[in-house]
């Protein structure tokens, strides 16, 4: 198993080249990697996890999280009709100007300024650091010490099974989590497939704590 982000990237690139050379579709590669994401993430150090989020997260997101065939067909249709244009750039900033929104976009070595009627953020939930979330429930959990932020800054700390860890480092006996709060524990935990598996496992653990009632 790769020990560093650089080693993982090197192996993936080599495998992608081999698949392409054989005339097969390389886009099946992320699906082959995905079952191993949990063990790769939990076996990595925080340094390597954060290196992945800084440098490789965007590449992983666009290759692993693909649109449904029906949605993709609609997008392809409006592109062919000239109703939609798409491109690649890094957003440097936005500014309001004469009722429009002006975006500064970096494309390669150049910076381009483009005006839009509106801008929609489709990146999903981006506020992973619980210390920056203003929700009263989240703030109360942190203030009481019932939970603590994960060491990566993504979500809250917990065991691999999802049992929460308080600010003293103790595993809580009655609080567990699934999904987005566990991004630091299990990177893909906000995806439906992983949430379903976590929910089933949590339900099994809860039911195991109760003694079955025998009916005479």
Short synopsis of the structure:
The chain contains eight helices and five strands.
Characteristic terms for this protein:
single chain, 216 residues, alpha+beta, three-stranded antiparallel sheet, two-stranded antiparallel sheet, 8 helices
Sheet of most strands: 3 strands, antiparallel
Order of helices and strands: HHHHHHEEEHEEH
Q: By helix and strand content, what is the structural category?
A: alpha+beta
Instruction: Please report the total strand number as a whole number.
Output: 5
Proportion in β-strands: 5-15%
Residue windows where pLDDT falls under 50 for at least 5 positions: none
What is the rounded distance between the termini?
Answer: 53 Å
Helix count from the secondary structure assignment:
8
List the helices and strands and how they pair.
Layout (H helix, E strand, L loop, with lengths): L4 H17 L7 H5 L3 H6 L3 H10 L1 H8 L4 H12 L9 E8 L2 E8 L2 E7 L19 H9 L18 E3 L5 E6 L15 H17 L8
């Amino acid at each position: 198993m790769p020990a560093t982000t650089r080693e993982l990237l090197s192996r993936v690139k080599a495998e992608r080249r081999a698949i392409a050379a054989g005339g097969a579709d390389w886009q099946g590669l992320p699906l082959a990697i995905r079952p191993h994401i949990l063990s790769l993430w939990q076996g990595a150090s925080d340094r390597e996890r954060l290196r992945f989020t800084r440098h490789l997260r965007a590449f992983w997101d666009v290759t692993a999280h693909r649109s449904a065939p029906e949605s993709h067909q609609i997008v392809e249709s409006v592109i062919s009709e000239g109703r939609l244009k798409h491109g690649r750039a890094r957003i440097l900033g936005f500014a309001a100007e004469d009722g429009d929104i002006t975006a500064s976009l970096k494309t390669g070595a150049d910076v381009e300024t483009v005006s839009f009627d509106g801008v929609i953020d489709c990146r999903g939930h981006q506020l992973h650091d619980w210390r920056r979330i203003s929700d009263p429930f989240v703030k109360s959990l942190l203030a009481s010490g019932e939970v603590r932020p994960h060491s990566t800054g993504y979500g809250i700390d917990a065991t691999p099974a999802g049992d929460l860890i308080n600010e003293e480092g103790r595993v809580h006996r009655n609080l567990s989590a699934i999904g987005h709060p566990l991004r630091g524990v299990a990177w893909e935990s906000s995806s439906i497939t992983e949430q379903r598996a976590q929910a089933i496992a949590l339900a099994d653990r809860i039911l195991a704590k109760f003694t079955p009632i025998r009916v005479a």
